[in-house]
Amino acid sequence: MSDRATPDPAADLRAAFLRHVCQTSPEPLALEVARAAGATVWDTHGRAYLDLLSGIGVANVGHAHPAVVRAVQEQAARYLHVMVYGEAIEAPQVELARRLAELAPGELDVTFFTNSGAEAVEGALKTARKFTGRDGFAAFEGGFHGDTFGALSVGGNPVYRRPFEPLLPGVRWLPFDDQEALRQIDDSIAAVIIEPVQGEGGVRIPHPEFLPALRRRCTEVGALLVFDEVITGFGRTGKLFAAEHWSVTPDLLVLAKALGGGMPLGAFVGRPEIMATLSHDPPLAHVTTFGGHPVSCAAGLAALDVLLQERLTERARQLGQQWTTHLAGCVGKRLRAVRGKGLLIGLEFADPDSTRRFARTCFANGLILNWTLHLDTVIRLAPPLVLTEEESARALAILSAALAA
Ligand SMILES: Cc1ncc(COP(=O)(O)O)c(C=O)c1O
C-alpha cells in the first residue's frame, strides 16, 4: 500500500523511491533528477552537478543531445514497436547495423540488436557455443559483463556470483593481463570473453602485448574471442572501439551503453559466417521482442553522427591526456596511482575509507562520481566526451581540491 500522507512532494517522492522502487544497495545516490543536458544533471532543488560518470558510460555525446532528442521525437511520431526483432525491415535498425559494419574493425559486418549489455553478452555466448559446438568459456578475474545468469557466470568476482550459484558450468578463470595463463585456453573453449580495459575491475589497462597474444591463442585453438566494449566503445578510450588501440579484431564485439545515445540498446556484432548460425537448426532459437527498438536505433544513429561530426573520439584522447597528467600530479599519500585511456580514468586510493571520503567531498561540491563495483579503492572517471573547456577546468579544480583536503 502506498503512503501518500506526506505534504512535501519532494519528501514524498523520496519516501516512495525508498519504499516502492526495489533498492539495489543500502546507500543509493538518491539524486532527485529534474533534468539533464550535456555534462550537467540538475536536481529538483535547482542544484547543478557535473556528471563525471556519464550515467555510467552512456552519455558519451552528453545528456539529451538535441540531435538525439530530435531523432527520438521524429521516430516516435513515425512508429514505435511494430514487430519482434528480425522479421520486419525497419530503417533505423538497418541503417545502424550498416553503420556499425562500416565502423567496426575487420569483417564484423552483421549485428544482432538487444535491449542491454547483459543481453548482448548472453547472445554472444550462445552464438559461440552454437557456432563452435563447444561448451566451455574462459573469462578474466575482475571482469564484469552484466547480471543475467550467463553474463554473471563469466563475471570475474566470486562475491557477486556466489549468492546465485549454480551458474553456467565450465567457466575457466584466468588472471587479467597474464600472458602465461593464456595457455589454459584450449580446444574445449567456445569463447573467451574480455573487456579490453576492465571497467568495474578498477580501470585496468593491459600491457601492449597481452591482447594480441590472446588473439593469437584464440585463433590457435579455435576459440572465439569476444570483446565486451560495453563501457569502452564509442570513443570513450580515445578510439572509436578500444580494440583499435591494440589492432586486435575480435570474433564478436559486444556493445551497449553509449550505443543508444541515452536510449536502451545493446548489440553483438560478428563475422557473417559466425552470425549465420542463429538463423537455422532451429530457426528462431534466439529472438527478442524489443531488441533493436526503432526509437533506440534512431537515437543511436543520431548519437553516432554527433560523435563523428564533433570529433569526440579525438576530444576524449586530448582531454584524457590532460586529465591523467594533471591528476598524476596529485599522487601522494592518499591517491596512489592514476591510469587511463582517453576519458576512462581510474584514481587508485590507499584504502576504501579515503575513496569514500573523496567521493563524498566531490559530490558535495557538485561532481557525480563513484568507485568501481569490484574495487572500492578505485574511483572511475568517465565524463561525457562533450565536456567544455570551462567544465573540464571546473571538474579538475574540484577533484584537485578534494584530493588536497
Ligand atoms: C563491461 C560491461 N559489460 C556489460 C555490462 C552490462 O550492461 P547492462 O547493464 O546494459 O546489462 C556492463 C554494465 O555496466 C559493463 O560495464
Summarize the structure.
36% of the residues lie in helices and 17% in strands. With 405 residues, the protein is α/β, with parallel strands linked by helices. The strands form three sheets. It has a seven-stranded mixed sheet with strand order 4-10-9-8-7-5-6, with helices on both faces.
Can you offer a commentary on this structure?
By secondary structure, the chain is an alpha/beta fold. It contains 13 helices and 15 strands. A seven-stranded mixed beta sheet has the order 4-10-9-8-7-5-6, with helices on both faces. Strands 1-2-3-13 form a four-stranded mixed beta sheet. The chain has a four-stranded antiparallel beta sheet with strand order 11-12-15-14. The model has no long low-confidence stretch (mean pLDDT 97).
Q: State the strand order across the main sheet.
A: 4-10-9-8-7-5-6
Question: Could you spell the SSE succession in H and E letters?
Answer: HEEEHHHEHEHHEEHEEEHHHEEHEEEH
Bound molecules: pyridoxal-5'-phosphate
Q: Which stretches are poorly predicted, pLDDT < 50 over at least 5 residues? A: none
Helical amount: 25-40%
Structural class: alpha/beta
Strand content: 15-25%
Total beta-strand segments: 15
Radius of gyration: 21 Å
Please state the overall shape, judged from the principal axes of the Cα atoms.
globular
Return the average pLDDT rounded to an integer: 97
User: Main β-sheet, in a few words?
Assistant: 7 strands, mixed
Helix segment tally = 13
**First-residue to last-residue Cα separation:** 45 Å
